[in-house]
Amino acid sequence: MLYISLKMSYRVRSILIVLVCLSTFVLCGNAGCGRLDDDNSYVFKAASAADYSEMGWVEAYDAIHAQMIEQYAFTEWKDLDYATLNSNTRPKIVLAEVNSSEDEYITAFLEYTKSIPDGHVFWSDNVTTNIMLKHSDGSYGFGMVLGDMILEWNDVPIATALALLSTLWSPTTHSLALGGDEHALAAKFKEAMEFLVGRNVPGIIIDVRGNLGGTDALAANIVGYFYSEQTIYEYQSVYNEYTGIFDTVPDDPEDNSVVKRNVPLNIEPQSPQYITKPVVVIVNPDSISSAEGIAMAIKRLDLGHVVSFYGTNGSFGIVGGKASLPLGYSISFPMGRSLDKYKVIQVDSKDGLGCVTPDIRVPKTSANMLTYAKKDATDDVELDAAVAYLQTL
Q1: Partner of 387 at 20 to 30 A CA spacing, among 61, 69, 215, 282?
Q2: Minimal CA–CA distance to 279: which of 219, 230, 227, 217?
Q3: Is the Cα dihedral 146, 149, 154, 160 positive or negative?
Q4: Which has the closest alpha carbon to 17: 290, 306, 377, 278?
Q5: Higher pLDDT, 135 or 192
């Protein structure tokens, strides 16, 4: 269920904090642009979802492998080696089909998708309930208390065990189309800003931790309260089914329509303005997609800052690619990328680097990390760090 929780409270020295818990936005499946009509206009055509569910297992694998090569938005950016990926995966798919082993089949496919460092490459939920829980379930950590230290794992020193650890069965963070009303969310945020500006508060904190993202238009609208001039939020470069190339499209274009090239999504100043006092965004690795866009845009302000132990997820692509597989599973992936004003990919990770990093990094002391691990809403280390920063101004 979609919701916005606005918590407003006074802290020491009358710093008023608004925790805008934008738990999720509407997922916007932007896609494609098409055949050129002239230098500035072309026909937009969204790539269709592929259905390989009636194919054999190997045939379906070959089909989605070809689809990823053609449509995945970050092949060059992330230096993906599809030849190696295929040579490591395909023999396992062949063997799984020979053995009629669903576990072997999905395990091999998971190895494939988990080799792509992108939070927007994700599976349908049934892969978790049918496969992943079976491999990860158990009583790990039973009887341990906070502060205990694991020295060995299956008689292997913990440092060695961690180095050999596979993340194949770890949970995957991804954006979900949970529904909801973008206009209602925008209205709620406007209401909060009117309340805060009307009371002349000296600082605002926006909390997008655990935010799974959604529409870029809503993110651009939210940050507009902190911008005094129209500013480029992004260009959207998306896969074109007509020509098989990536081209820039306006935000959320209509399918099979003529669109203009190189039209950015802009941050438009919103009223009431909050441009002369600091605004801080709290993030974590579960801040993904358009949640990262909010942090990105705020950090670019002279009075904007990002607070965290870590950065955001580094997955800022435009979703829309999808393929249905045998046995009722499906895989989704981004077919578009966000470009900055120089037409360079922004935020998405490359060579292990990327995301929106904090300029106010919370120290990873033993005390802070133990408090952080408790996940106690009344003892929030990152929020306390944001408040402490505002108190220094």
Answers
A1: 215
A2: 227
A3: positive
A4: 278
A5: 192
User: Over 80: is that where the pLDDT of 147 sits?
Assistant: no
Structure tokens at 220: 């651009």
Q: Using CA of residue 364, residue 367, residue 373, residue 377, what is the dihedral sign? A: negative
Specify whether the CB–CB gap between 330 and 123 falls below 8 A. Answer: yes
Q: What is the mean pLDDT of residues 54-72?
A: 96
The one-character DSSP state at 126 is H
Averaged pLDDT, 288-299: 95
Specify whether the CB–CB gap between 268 and 226 falls below 8 A. Answer: no
DSSP state of 14: G
Contact 382, 309 (CB under 8 A): yes
Angstrom distance (rounded) from CA 60 to CA 66: 10
Q: How far apart are the C-alpha atoms of 213 and 292, rounded to whole Å?
A: 8
List, in order of start, the domains of the chain with CATH numbers: 4-29+181-233+266-321+349-391 (3.90.226.10)
The pairing of beta strand 304-308 with beta strand 360-361: parallel
The SS3 call for residue 281 is strand
Helix%, strand%, coil% for the chain, nearest 5? 30, 20, 45
Which of 149-163, 174-188, 311-325 is the most confident on average?
311-325
Lowest mean per-residue pLDDT among 148-157, 245-254, 317-326, 366-375: 148-157
The answer to whether 165 touches 156, Cβ cutoff 8 Å, is: no
Quick check: 303 and 277 in contact, CB under 8 A?
A: yes
Closest CA to 106 of 81, 87, 123, 84: 123
Helices (H), the chain: 57-71, 82-99, 102-114, 126-127, 133-136, 158-163, 182-198, 216-223, 290-299, 366-374, 381-391
pLDDT class for 262, splitting at 50, 70, 90? Answer: confident
> Contact 192/137 with Cβ under 8 angstroms?
no
Prediction pTM value: 0.79
Closest CA to 336 of 323, 345, 327, 325: 345
Collapsing DSSP to helix, strand or coil, 265 comes out as strand
Contact criterion met (CB below 8 Å) for 364 and 100: no
